[in-house]
Specification:
With 386 residues, the chain is α/β, with parallel strands linked by helices. It has helices spanning 11-21, 60-77, 124-132, 142-152, 195-208, 224-229, 245-254, 270-276, 289-292, 307-319, 321-338, 341-360, 365-375, and strands at 2-6, 26-32, 47-52, 81-85, 103-106, 136-139, 159-161, 182-186, 213-217, 236-239, 257-260, 281-284, 299-302. It folds into two domains: 2-165 and 341-375, Rossmann fold (3-Layer(aba) Sandwich); 172-338, Glycogen Phosphorylase B (Rossmann fold, 3-Layer(aba) Sandwich). The protein is built from 13 helices and 13 strands.
Amino acid sequence: MKIAWITYDFEEYSSLHVNALSAEHDVLLVMPRAVGQDQKYAISPNVQHYAFKKPRLRQPVRQLHSIRKILRRIAEFSPDVVHLQQGHMWFNTALNSLKQYPLVVTIHDPRHHAGDTVSQKTPQWLMDYGFRQADHVIVHGEALASQVSGLFGLPDDHVHVIPHVAMGEILEADAETEDPRLVLFFGRIWDYKGLDHLIAAEPIIAEQLPNVRIMIAGEGADFSRYQAMMHNPEHFIVRNAWISDHQRARFFQRSALVVLPYNEATQSGVVPVAYNYGKPVVATRVGALSECVDHEKTGLLVPPRDPQALAEAIVRLLKDSNLRHAMGLAGKAKLDRDCSPAVVAQQTVEAYRCAIRDRSGGRSTAARMKATYASGSFTGSSAGGS
């Protein structure tokens, strides 16, 4: 099979995927080149990498020029299937130029998250337009499959639930000893991540564990309002900046557990990284988090917006090292079994085959959707419109 993989982001995720796919298939990776440095993640020599310079969103002329070159390279490759990651404000406008190929879209986030100012630069209706052009879509959880089907009226057999690929390279050169009192919050800091609830939980945790430390590592929203919420600032280690892979490796190795106190979620790339380092996860029951965290096995699940429940779960794991380490081992086993690049690649190829088979058997999903909208019979809802 000849696979054209297109992404404007998701560098680590995409590199792992295409490397695994290239073991048995011809793959063209269309992904921006690293700026001012070598390629951050190793790409297999079996993969054809078309590395383009990513223009700014406010540069329409450069965007259109870049898209023309991308389309030309895809045409030269002549793929059996095109796989687009999430979409892109400008590239979505060119999807009609790819209509001769079966199109699979991985929908990482069906809707913009609260506070995610980066994603919100692209209008939701334009993202929806791209999603609706897909013959088949991939999501990373059953909860997301239900949401996507409801939003876009997709048949169940056109929505494929495939686990998030395992991420987080183990860097032995940066080996760190686990700190049994350290809790890690990792990733971009946006409103929906619920960091305020973790900060509110800290005094409750400190009543039983006075030596607790909470590391907050990631960039995003203005951090001053979070600092103002801290009752005991000395209990927090803050790295409010972009985190390198070497720093990430050290932070996860040092932590006793990883916490995701999200108010809402689709899926999370943080959970597979935690599992890769053998760390249990305390997460809220939102989105697909309850699907990737096995309660009482690989971590603990608590209600969202509940600092008391969050604190109790964290205290329980910090006090019980045997339980904590057993959950960490179970998470690593789950990751290796369900989320290894080879396993995920095999499932992804099955989604490609379905899209190709559907296209060869008649009109694409996108064409049927357009006909449904034209007839006025569509009853689904979408905040963005069409």
